[in-house]
Amino acid sequence: MTQRLKDKVAIVTGAAAAERDGLKGIGGAAAWLFAKEGAKIVIADINAEQGQRTTAQIQETYGDALFVRLDVSSEDEWKQAVQTTVDRFGRLDVLVNSAGLTGGGSDVETTSLEHWNRMMDVHVKGTFLGTKYAIAEMRKVAGGSIVNVSSMHGIVGIKYGAATAYQAAKGAIRIFTKAAAIQYAKENIRVNSIHPGNTNTPMAVPYMTDKDWTKLWIDETPLGRFAHSDEIAYPILYLASDESSYVTGAELVVDGGINAV
Ligand SMILES: NC(=O)c1ccc[n+]([C@@H]2O[C@H](COP(=O)([O-])OP(=O)(O)OC[C@H]3O[C@@H](n4cnc5c(N)ncnc54)[C@H](O)[C@@H]3O)[C@@H](O)[C@H]2O)c1
Questions:
Q1: CA-to-CA dists, residue 101 to 14, 98, 116, angstroms
Q2: pLDDT over 70 for what percent of the chain?
């Protein structure tokens, strides 16, 4: 084993969907990879049943792992999740903000205020609160790495279909990341965003079973296929580990080449 995260403690949000033999989400794939690379993992998700199953399997395979039930849009629950992590593992080195909701397909006029607020709550407020409460603990250990999962759609518009609130939320994560990166760079707390393209995860199943949608997007993707969740988890691992020690405020696009066209 290479142990790229040896002795690190990491919280990964939205990592419940990652049972051993099932389709894994991006956060879930990152949690497995982090554990394999020597990290102590805290899976934080609103889905307690699946989160506990995934955590138990990671624990059986690699050792220390903990599940905390967290709604990322709740400030009280974030405080509790960070405290529980530190009580159990003594420190916090890495935070991956990956919890998310499916985009929905609405243009500006058909986007309800309720949908808009939900997208902002989970993606933007969730990323802000996680970053806010992780920083105090990272300061105690003289540094840390925060990886915020945005999207290719946080950088450019969507050619096929519309996801107004989702895009606005993912764009906000991109620039929030840069603001936080600059504010905490002197304390060696690095903050970066990752921008996946279409990735085969539980959340994406409703799109990826639509043959017309799938054909449009595969034709649009220079690499000619969708990503496996591990192909996003490895770049997240790089940003989380000390290998990226001089990288902060960056946006790592992992989209099969779509944004390069
Ligand atoms: N799958 C893609 O094609 C794709 C592309 C670009 C970006 N992303 C982003 O990557 C991230 C992970 O997506 P995924 O497709 O791997 O999802 P996934 O299949 O892992 O599902 C998302 C997870 O987030 C959890 N979650 C939802 N709301 C929550 C809340 N309020 N608090 C805590 N947990 C909550 C769910 O329970 C679930 O476990 C998301 O932010 C998503 O927007 C996904």
A1: 10, 10, 12
A2: 99
Are the C-beta atoms of residues 49 and 133 closer than 8 Å to each other?
no
Q: Are 37 and 2 in contact (CB under 8 A)?
A: yes
Is 166 designated active site?
A: yes
Residue 3 lies in a domain: no
H/E stretch holding 120 reads: none
Share of the chain above pLDDT 90, in %: 92
| 1 assigned to some structural domain | no
How far apart CA 28 and CA 57 sit, in angstroms, is 12
Whole-angstrom Cα distance, residue 257 to residue 261? 7
Mutate to test the pocket of ligand 1, among 70, 71, 98, 176 (most ligand atoms within 8 A of CB): 98
Domains identified in the chain, total number: 1
Predicted TM-score of the model (pTM): 0.98
Measured in Å, residue 97 CA sits from the centre of ligand 1 at: 9
- pLDDT value for 159: 80
- Domain of residue 180, CATH code: 3.40.50.720
- How far is the centre of ligand 1, averaged over its atoms, from the C-alpha of 126 (Å)? 12
Residues in the chain: 261
- Residue 259, Cβ density class (10 Å: 0-12 exposed, 13-18 middle, ≥19 buried): middle
Q: Assess contact for 18 and 33: CB atoms under 8 A.
A: no
pLDDT value at residue 206: 87
